[in-house]
Specification:
The protein is of the alpha+beta class. Helices cover 39% and strands 19% of the residues.
Length: 203
């Protein structure tokens, strides 16, 4: 029983160390981050395994506005916001797509999503998922973070840290306007309703 807290502490320290390393650059003085650390305007193309170990490409999940959540089982804020994302998935029907990316090992992720009855798709990886998260520049200074994009993968906003129910519902309302053609990605960026802890997409 005493090994679990130590495991959590080591995992958190590893992630924090990765973020600091990305921020400060490598030991030889070169910058380890991408040339621009601003969030991307377009979702990067990537493929990760799902909870069954099958490779899934991000493109499979486009075609409707996307809520892309990066998380880990050992991250308490991630665990707190998961039921909110599950509720969003349940009520949004075919209008929105919720997709999780777990920066974690497969077995604990499988246990977690079964235990909480998470019905939306979850992609899983350790270093591979961390590499995908790093493509979002300075947004990846820790977990969780959530990317909101339109049906074509254009990034509308990135929310840093835990997202709360009122914030997620405000984001949902704007994504539904996107889905219904009432606004485009540029208008959604300008009118994005959630600003606390958010990194607006580069323009």
């Amino acid at each position: 029983m005493r090994a679990l807290p130590l495991t959590l502490l080591l995992a958190a320290c590893a992630l924090a160390g990765f973020g600091v390393h990305q921020w400060l650059g490598s030991d030889d003085g070169s910058d380890a981050r991408p040339a621009s650390a601003a969030p991307p305007e377009q979702l990067p193309d990537f493929t990760l395994g799902d909870a069954d170990g099958e490779p899934r490409a991000l493109g499979e999940f486009l075609g409707r506005p996307l809520v892309l959540n990066f998380w880990a089982t050992w991250c308490p804020p991630c665990v707190r916001e998961m039921p909110l994302l599950a509720d969003l998935h349940a009520r949004s029907g075919d209008e929105l797509q919720v997709l999780g990316v777990a920066v974690d090992r497969l077995e604990p992720v499988r246990y977690f999503i079964d235990d909480l009855d998470i019905r939306y798709p979850v992609l899983v990886g350790e270093q591979d998922a961390m590499d995908v998260a790093a493509l979002f520049g300075d947004a990846f200074l820790g977990l969780p973070f959530t990317v909101f994009a339109d049906a074509d993968g254009r990034v509308v906003d990135i929310h840093l840290g835990e997202i709360h129910d009122d914030e997620l519902r405000a984001a949902e309302a704007m994504l539904l306007r996107l889905a219904r053609g009432e606004v485009d990605a540029d208008e959604a960026r300008e009118r994005w309703p959630v600003r606390r802890g958010a990194a607006t997409a580069a323009r």
